[in-house]
Design brief:
Distance between the termini: 50 Å
Radius of gyration: 20 Å
Helix content: 55-70%
Number of strands: 0
Order of helices and strands: HHH
Length: 81
């Protein structure tokens, strides 16, 4: 026996969902079936669900931000080797 599950989303979200599934070579119905299967298999969301941290502080300057991003990129590059 099959059960039908329905929900409401905005027209914009529905259009984007349909277009994205088309580009992926699948259908909205199949994408929803895949999500439900993964949700059930993981016994919850198949990706991290969390609240954003509020303790993030901005960089003091654009230079500090650029230096941080450069160091991070170099570190990540070294880790992939």
């Amino acid at each position: 026996m099959s059960m039908q599950i329905a929900t409401r989303v905005s027209d914009e979200q529905a259009a984007l969902f349909k277009e994205t599934t088309r580009q992926l070579g699948t259908t909205p119905a199949d994408a929803l079936r895949m999500f439900i299967s993964a949700f059930n298999d993981y016994r919850g969301f198949p990706y991290e669900v969390r609240l954003p941290r509020n303790d993030v502080e901005p960089f003091a300057s654009e230079r500090d931000a650029t230096e941080y991003a450069s160091r991070l990129a170099l570190r990540m590059s070294d880790e992939t080797r």
